[in-house]
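User: Assemble these into one structure.

Assistant: Restating your components, then the assembled model:
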Amino acid sequence: MKSFIDIVYLVPLFPFIGFLINGLGRKQLSKSLSGIIGSGVILASFILSLLIFNETRAEGFTAVTVNLFEFINVADLNIPFALQVDQLSALFLLIITGVGFLIHLYSTSYMHDEEAHHYARYFSYLNLFVFSMLILVLGANYLIMFIGWEGVGLCSYLLIGYWFKNTEFNNAARKAFVMNRIGDLGFLIGLFFIIQQFGSLTYTEVFSQASGASVGILTVITLLLFVGATGKSAQIPLYTWLPDAMAGPTPVSALIHAATMVTAGIYMIARSNILYTLAPISQTVVAVIGLATAILAATVAIKQNDIKKVLAYSTVSQLGYMFLGLGVGAYTGAVFHVMTHAFFKALLFLGAGSVIHAMHHEQDIRKMGGLAKKLPITHWTFLAGCIAIAGIPPFSGFFSKDEILVHAFGASPVYYIIGLAGALMTAFYMFRLYAMTFRGTFRGTKEQEHHLHESPWQMTLPLVLLAVLATVAGFLGIPEIFAADSHLLEHYLAPVFAESTKLSEAHLPDHSTEYLLLVVSIVLIVGSIFYAWNRFSKKPETSDAEGFGKVLANKWYVDEFYDNIITKPLNGLGVVFNRFVEKSGIDGAVNGVGKSVQWGGRQLRLLQSGQVGSYVLWMVLGILIFFVIALFI
Amino acid sequence: MPINYYIILAVALFSIGVAGVLTRRNAIIIFMCVELMLNAVNLLLVAFSKMHYETVAQFNPASPIGVDAQLFVFFIMVVAAAEVSVGLAIIVMMYRNVHSVDINFLNRLKH
């Protein structure tokens, strides 16, 4: 073995083995053993990912394809089961296995109340999810990515509906899966177009031929792939599943719906960056939808009272920012934001889980307050996450979000202004959440107050580690204006985006404008933070919303809209088909065959009269017929 | 005599036999009709044997042509005798049980 990249197949294989052991042996394993196996395999993958990452940092490293076995080889189409290791996939490997391991560790304590076989089932699903996500980012062609794409959708369904005895949770899981699948249809049709145009699905082959294809077909392909991304990464119009997905356990929300699965769409577009750069219309569509989603979700988050729903809408909003970054050509910025978002959003979700754990499964922030002194570690780490997401230097969110906003300004100042408005709303609702949860006075019952305690080390250690990462990770991407040549992430990812960078004419604002934009955003955001902190510590919003606030609290009635326009007509169509086509038509035909056979049998039975005379008569007639046939044939 | 007369006689006897089997109710009469059918066939076979012999009688009086039909007649007679003995035994048993030889009482086959 020359290098660790040769054994890259072990990285997804470890979680798969963990899935098999915990899944098949769930009735035999004890809780601690399940937890150790489930977390241990992710740790093993993380260590291997670190070693692989180290090798990709070498000067002049080019993508390496590891062919595992022949998968589809038919006529002109050859799709091997191959994994590709380059800077982009190595970075995602680290994020997935690193944050994934911390969440597994957290889960060993958070899910402690479950019975042993359900506990093992949880870890087997989590491991299967990590396996699928790793396959998604490691694939060397679009089909392997699609296998992982579907796998994470499946695991999302399994994990959201983990507490399967609750019908509402099952509905949420089904909604997530169905909306994902709608996006997947677009993705599949895009794949078919790629095969038709390029004759292959392998990245290297498609991307090298990309410049030869017409803009029209590239626009069609990229738009269809983006439809898949809207489903997976919760953008307009397929985002409504994500807030409902909070029905699952909180570590699941942290892993799947904050750090990994929802970033699959961004990974896909970052991987296909050359296709998008060659189709400017698609880029505009991506940017506009991303921006619209960012604003829409931010407005809804302002009026939510469930701690997890605020974070869910925050995730949708931040994903909108990442797509905005991709749409204006800031590929590195978008991937940077994926990384920092994974850290601080996982941190926020795990912190919320710690609060929920302490409050004995209470999730309504109107019943919280003053938790800062009772839950110190949770409080300080959550505050770090809030500052990071708001975008205050030197925390990480500032660097990644501002890189996106600066590129957006370069594409059009309107993008910047709307994006900045969204950032102000982000700071506002996050500090509303923080103030109503941790500051002020406790508004819950005496029972709950009595039970408030800090969480065990398995839950607080990941919080601390993620808080450190959320604070310092920004220094991987120091922009030009502060120090020349210090954007480590941009150097690292340069080979992946090289073609796009060459083709796009990046009209970035000059340094003085950039300084101005940064200062303006910081000042406004700090103002927003102070306003929200003061207002909601003193006067938390305990009453129900009214007027325009009611529209926001009801999520702009989008769910009701979808229900009436799409779900009810489809259900009605189903009823029509059931009553007329199925019951009368198909059932009628099948049952009719049976009935006619029965009728025929009843008629034939009448032949058996028991009268010897009639038997002899039939015999003679039969002989006559035989004679006639024999004579004339 | 022309062969036609024998054929018509045999066919008539056979048809009477068939009609009797199908229509009569008394089991013994049915047996008689079966015998009638067999005898009609015997008659026809012997007639055909003679017909074949007549065609070569002038040239070769000792020719054995047509002898197989007469042999067949003997076989039929043997079979008829055996069948009658068995059949009459069954009818006797039937009479002992039901005290009648009417075949319409024999609808036990339905059960």
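Chain B has a mean pLDDT of 91.
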